[in-house]
């Protein structure tokens, strides 16, 4: 990031030393000024470098703390003894024991297991817990049941296994090396800064060489010409800017961290702002990552349940006695329980032991009915058959809470079609009706409808066992099934979904108006994916896929005009068969795209496809397998809660709350920082001309030098630093979320307009204002402007101690030198005063300052105050330190440049006025930067 | 990963440049069409015209604050400096007695310098003033009334006047005259109403290098010995108060700067002698650390004889 400028400064420093060397060889008493200057330049380079490194390191540190939180331990059997050792000391052949809750310490082949289930989601994207046993089921190591993978988690049960791979040779290790193999390309802001450095360095070098040639041809000594060259370089290079940019970025990074976006790589702050495509995960990012009851069907009617984060607002009709029965089944036919010790946690946030759907049902009933555990206690469970994948239902038999009713209640839930098979009656309005064709049909319609919403549907039925056949003492036997499991009474359906986060639809709308395409990439089922996409607005309400159109018009899919469809759902299978061109076509032609059933490897293909469209792509991910895509993306966003360490390592940013909406605030900040950097750079570049002109005039017209190199450094690294940082606090001028993302190649940070306006308009005005102060000081001391022309040689001659001024007075060399320093100070103050005006006008690029509010950004005023205070200290506090060439300046000279400062402000207001009045006009094109 | 940066061939670059300079398709010269160039040139003409006008205006306003006759501030000139004539490149007077050319240029310069001091010119232009007191000429209500100057006749310089002098101010005999003059400062009342004079000594100049290392007071100072005897004109190196104050070149037109001539009689030949002359006046400090010429002047003298 520092490259270009530091080379220029190094050149300047070496030229300084060479110049001193030449001077010293001809005159032993040559002044050490050039040595000091050279050292200062080198110091600037080094400090800037160290500073940037420090800033980077600080933000990187946040990340490394993640990794080192818990050193992983493994229980290993060595020498027939159980030992706990750090996981990295494992070797192939070790026998390890893992129990529920532990991380798998290496790739392990299962020797024996007890009810072991592992969470492979970070590796394969499967969200369901996977059972593990010693049996070999598949050739593919990723599919077979007898291998547990490094860094996945054992959810329950215990497993004993043999280590077959460790470290980099594990499956995860392969993926991680794949991730590091993906070239990390330059961030957009790094490219922009490089581009800007090229411009400025180009200007510096060409002006420097041009004037070197002019100076030599004007018969200046080569040594003097070299010194001019140094002055020109120093004047042109904005020494403080790179540091400022770093600070600005880290300020924004801090602000983003407060909004739950932790930025690892400072430059990524801006990348987020230029994002044009977001490839987002579904689970956890767009959704709440917990199953929730969304719909109910009973009494031939579909009811909608509240799926918002707190479930507070359940409005469906609860008066029907069918609901009473249904709620009883939901409550009783459920093995899930709340973990103890969470009395004060809101119901929806309580942790649950049990699988996702049971937890959803538990919370649902807890919210509506109150204390579920109490109800279960009153309806003592006699016997139960847990859910399994072969019978696809769950059953339990309870005593009732009515002391007069001695019957047992059998409740059952399961896959709706299986439940319906077992029923002969259906409950409507609390009464049992025989299940006939028409009721079966309404059931099917409801089932299809709920399924079409991408929801997981469960059917519920019950049966009161007749008291005569099943007396209180009856002993139920699960294996013998000595109780009826058919001719039950169907009660209702319940459907569940992982509902979208409530903030997401809004955030997606914001993205859309900000011109950002949101693409959903999920491993989930297409129907579910599409339903969620629709509900969050990734597929907007009025757009249809090809299949939708076909369905609406009742024609085959092939006959639909592809152009009519705005949205599309692409599955991983289809993606597999596609050529890159076809993928490009899909990405270019459809506004709303959902990728479903995709594998992590396909995610990488999708990201690359997007990048081929010249888009800046943000990718969210949490699994280890996402890390190549995260690395490949222009900005990888890892999930802070659900994300694996590998994902966090590969990402540029971590979302602390896993919430998609946080990305949008990040985008907003990123765009703001781009605008504000533009302002900072414009502000910084402006004074370059005012610092450069003195040298040019000095060479051409032979005036006593208006400003010294050291003085320039005091502006660049002193008075201007805090103000340019202050611009980072500027509020956006208009709704920045209502414009298109910037085009990577067209909307540059530093464009021609910015350079021209800063250099040739404001910069020139500033130079004139500063010269006015300079001339004033000289004139009022006796050297009127015309006497100064071509005075340089005599002025600088140490042996001329009676130089005559306009009034006939004679000056010694030292008296002149002191006046020259006063001139430096005057020029410095002239620039300083006008930089205040410059700072104020840079607050906005289009709006009037008065629209923006002069006082809304308080930091700007801190900047102005710092400028003035530093100026005062330099002039009055250090006025006696001659090495710095500052003198005490008369108070009135501070106000000489004020008219020019006001002119700058007025001129810029006029510029902005015309830009607002005539958008798209010649003026707008040439004057808006 | 495909690296997407395609290298441009040299021909392409030239082609692109050609198109940039003149694009026949869009009729663009250097990226702009004719009308666009006309617009932009017109704009800068007007804009820079306006800036020039603005700058001229502010400069004009500023110059209104400056009087044509007296400077607004004189804070830098509290202590007038001293200088020597003949004026040489490195403040050194080197005379090769046998080599006429080596000192002829000094003589020419001195002749020219002393021309306005000729008695005839002085008598014609300047007043005879009363010595020993300032020649004050208040405006008395008439703004910028022209001021008269006092006579300083060349003959006052005695043996150094160079009038009818076959030795050319002593340069041909190795007894050169060096003239000391004090810098003009407007409205400066030198001497604070007490008499003042110039004195010279042979003395090594204080370099930065032996700062703090005091030259022993009683120690043998080579330069003082090598310098030998000298005489001063007017006597004792006196400068009379009547030449002050100076009113500025605008209306103190014929002002004649008082001089002190020093004639070195027996400088040790073939060595470089450092000479320092300073003015002894009540209101002129001569010990400024930084300004080596405040109220004093140091120069080198070398007489080469074979």
Describe this structure in words.
The complex is a heterodimer of chains A (929) and B (306). Chain A has five domains: 1-61 and 187-237, no CATH class; 71-181, Calcium-transporting ATPase, cytoplasmic transduction domain A (Distorted Sandwich), CATH 2.70.150; 261-287 and 501-658, HAD superfamily/HAD-like (Rossmann fold, 3-Layer(aba) Sandwich); 292-423 and 454-497, Calcium-transporting ATPase, cytoplasmic domain N; 692-927, Calcium-transporting ATPase, transmembrane domain, CATH 1.20.1110.10. Chain A contains 32 helices and 28 strands. In chain A, β10 and β11 form a beta hairpin. With 306 residues, chain B is α+β, with helices and mostly antiparallel strands. Chain B has two domains: 11-58, no CATH class; 82-304, Na, k-atpase alpha subunit (Immunoglobulin-like). Chain B has five helices and twelve strands. Chain B has helices at 10-21, 34-64, 100-114, 119-125, 222-227; strands at residues 22-23, 28-29, 32-33, 82-85, 92-96, 177-182, 196-202, 230-233, 238-239, 259-264, 272-280, 296-304. Chain B has a five-stranded mixed beta sheet. In chain B, a hairpin with a 2-residue loop joins β2 (28-29) and β3 (32-33). The radius of gyration of chain B is 31 Å and the shape is extended. Mean pLDDT of chain B is 85; it is low at 1-5 and 207-219. Chain A: It is found in: Cell membrane; Membrane.
């Amino acid at each position: 990031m520092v490259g270009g400028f530091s080379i220029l400064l190094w050149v300047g420093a070496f030229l300084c030393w060479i110049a001193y060397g030449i001077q010293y060889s001809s005159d032993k008493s040559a002044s050490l000024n050039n040595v000091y200057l050279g050292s200062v330049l080198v110091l600037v380079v080094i400090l800037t470098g160290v500073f940037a490194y420090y800033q980077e390191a600080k933000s990187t540190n946040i990340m490394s703390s993640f990794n080192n939180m818990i050193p992983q331990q493994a229980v290993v059997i060595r020498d027939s003894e159980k030992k706990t050792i750090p996981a990295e000391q494992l070797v192939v052949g070790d026998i390890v024991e893992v129990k529920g809750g532990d991380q798998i310490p290496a790739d392990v082949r299962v020797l024996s297991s007890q009810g072991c289930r592992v969470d492979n989601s970070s590796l394969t994207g499967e969200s369901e817990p996977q059972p593990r046993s010693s049996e070999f089921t598949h050739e593919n190591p990723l599919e077979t049941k007898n291998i547990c993978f490094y860094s996945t988690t054992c959810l329950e049960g215990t497993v004993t296994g043999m280590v077959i791979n460790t470290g980099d040779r594990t499956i995860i290790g392969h993926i991680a090396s794949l991730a590091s193999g993906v070239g990390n390309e330059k961030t957009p802001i790094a490219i922009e800064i490089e581009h800007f450095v090229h411009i400025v360095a180009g200007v510096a070098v060409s002006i420097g060489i041009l004037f070197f040639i002019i100076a030599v041809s004007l018969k200046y000594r080569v040594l003097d010409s070299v010194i001019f060259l140094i002055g020109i370089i120093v004047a042109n290079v904005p020494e403080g800017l790179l540091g400022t940019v770093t600070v600005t970025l880290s300020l924004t990074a801090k602000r983003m961290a407060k909004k739950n976006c932790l930025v690892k790589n400072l430059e990524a702050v801006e990348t987020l702002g230029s994002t044009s495509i977001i490839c987002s995960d579904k689970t956890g990012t767009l959704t709440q990552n917990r199953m929730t009851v969304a719909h109910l069907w009973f009494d031939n009617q579909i009811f909608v349940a509240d799926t918002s984060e707190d479930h507070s607002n359940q409005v469906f009709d609860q008066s029907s006695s069918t609901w009473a029965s249904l709620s009883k089944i939901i409550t009783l036919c459920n093995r899930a329980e709340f973990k103890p010790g969470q009395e004060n946690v809101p119901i929806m946030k309580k942790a649950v032991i049990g699988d996702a759907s049971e937890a959803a049902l538990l919370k649902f009933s807890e919210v509506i009915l109150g204390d579920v555990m109490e109800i279960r206690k009153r309806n003592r469970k006699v016997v139960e058959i847990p859910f399994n994948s072969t019978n696809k239902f769950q059953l339990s038999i309870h005593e009732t809470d009515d002391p007069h009713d001695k019957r047992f209640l059998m409740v059952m839930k399961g896959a709706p079609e299986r439940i319906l098979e077992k029923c002969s009656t259906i409950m409507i309005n609390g009464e049992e009706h025989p299940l006939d064709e028409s009721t079966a049909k309404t059931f099917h319609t409801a089932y299809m409808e709920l399924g079409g919403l991408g929801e997981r549907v469960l059917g519920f039925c019950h049966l009161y066992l007749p008291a005569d056949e099943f007396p209180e003492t009856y002993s139920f036997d699960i294996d013998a099934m000595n109780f009826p499991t058919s001719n039950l009474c169907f009660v209702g359906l319940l459907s569940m979904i992982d509902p979208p986060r409530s903030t997401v639809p809004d955030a997606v709308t914001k993205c859309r108006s900000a011109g950002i395409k949101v693409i959903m990439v999920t491993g989930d089922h297409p129907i579910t994916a599409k339903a969620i996409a629709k509900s969050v607005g990734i597929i907007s309400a009025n757009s249809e896929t090809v299949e939708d159109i076909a369905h609406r018009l009742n024609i085959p899919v092939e006959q639909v005009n592809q152009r009519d469809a705005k949205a599309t759902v692409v599955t991983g299978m289809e993606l597999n068969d596609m050529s890159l061109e076809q993928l490009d076509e899909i990405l270019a032609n459809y506004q709303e795209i959902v990728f479903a059933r995709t594998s992590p490897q396909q995610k990488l293909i999708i990201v690359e496809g997007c990048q081929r469209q010249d888009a800046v792509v943000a990718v969210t991910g949490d699994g280890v397998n996402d890390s190549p895509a995260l690395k490949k993306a222009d900005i990888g966003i890892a999930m802070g809660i659900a994300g694996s360490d590998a994902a966090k390592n590969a990402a540029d940013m971590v979302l602390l709350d896993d919430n998609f909406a946080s990305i949008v605030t990040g985008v907003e900040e990123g765009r703001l920082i781009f605008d504000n950097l533009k302002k900072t750079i414009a502000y910084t570049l402006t004074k370059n001309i005012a610092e450069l002109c003195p040298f040019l005039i000095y060479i051409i017209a032979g005036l006593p030098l208006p400003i010294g190199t050291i003085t320039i450094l005091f502006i660049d690294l002193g008075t201007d630093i805090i103000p340019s940082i202050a611009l980072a606090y500027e509020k956006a001028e208009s709704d920045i979320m209502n414009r298109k993302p910037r085009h990577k190649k067209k909307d540059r940070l530093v464009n021609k307009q910015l350079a021209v306006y800063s250099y040739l308009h404001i910069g020139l005005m500033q130079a004139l204002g500063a010269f006015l102060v300079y001339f004033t000081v000289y004139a009022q001391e006796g050297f009127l402007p015309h006497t100064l022309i071509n005075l340089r040689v005599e002025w600088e001659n140490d042996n001329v101690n009676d130089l005559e001024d306009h009034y006939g007075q004679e000056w010694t060399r030292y008296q002149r030198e002191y006046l020259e320093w006063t001139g430096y100070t005057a020029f410095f103050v002239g620039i300083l005063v006008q930089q205040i005006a410059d700072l104020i006008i840079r607050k906005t690029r289009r709006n009037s300052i008065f629209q923006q509010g002069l006082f809304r950004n308080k930091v700007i005023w801190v900047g102005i105050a710092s400028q003035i205070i530093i100026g005062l200290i330099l002039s009055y506090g250090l006025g006696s330190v001659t090495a710095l060439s500052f003198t005490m300046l008369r108070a009135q000279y501070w106000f000489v440049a004020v008219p020019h400062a006001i002119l700058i402000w007025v001129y810029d207001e006029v510029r902005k006025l015309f830009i607002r009045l005539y958008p798209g006009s010649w003026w707008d094109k040439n004057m808006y930067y | 990963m495909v690296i997407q940066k395609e290298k441009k061939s040299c021909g392409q670059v030239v082609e692109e440049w050609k198109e940039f300079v003149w694009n026949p398709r869009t009729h663009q010269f250097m990226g702009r069409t004719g009308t666009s160039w006309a617009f932009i040139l017109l704009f800068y003409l007007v804009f820079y015209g306006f800036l020039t006008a603005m700058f001229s205006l502010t400069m004009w306003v500023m110059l209104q604050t400056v009087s044509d006759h007296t400077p607004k501030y004189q804070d830098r000139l509290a202590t007038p400096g001293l200088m020597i004539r003949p004026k040489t490149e490195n403040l050194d007077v080197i005379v090769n007695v046998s080599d006429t050319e080596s000192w002829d240029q000094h003589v020419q310069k001195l002749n020219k310098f002393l021309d306005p001091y000729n008695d005839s010119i002085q008598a014609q232009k300047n007043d005879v003033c009363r010595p020993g007191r300032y020649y004050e000429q208040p405006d008395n209500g008439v703004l910028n009334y022209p001021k008269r100057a006092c006579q300083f006749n060349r003959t006052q310089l005695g043996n150094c006047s160079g009038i009818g002098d076959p030795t050319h101010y002593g340069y041909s005999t190795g007894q050169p005259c060096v003239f000391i003059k004090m810098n003009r400062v407007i409205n400066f009342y030198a001497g604070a109403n007490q008499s003042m004079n110039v004195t010279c000594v042979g003395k090594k100049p204080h370099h930065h290098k032996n700062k703090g290392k005091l030259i022993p007071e009683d120690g043998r100072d080579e330069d003082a010995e090598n310098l030998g005897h000298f005489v001063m004109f007017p006597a004792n190196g006196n400068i009379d108060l009547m030449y002050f104050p100076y009113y500025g070149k605008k209306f103190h037109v014929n002002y004649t700067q008082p001089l002190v001539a020093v004639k070195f009689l027996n400088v040790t030949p073939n060595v470089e002698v450092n000479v320092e002359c300073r003015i002894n006046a009540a209101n002129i400090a001569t010990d400024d650390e930084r300004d080596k010429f405040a109220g004093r002047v140091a120069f080198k003298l070398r007489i080469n004889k074979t």
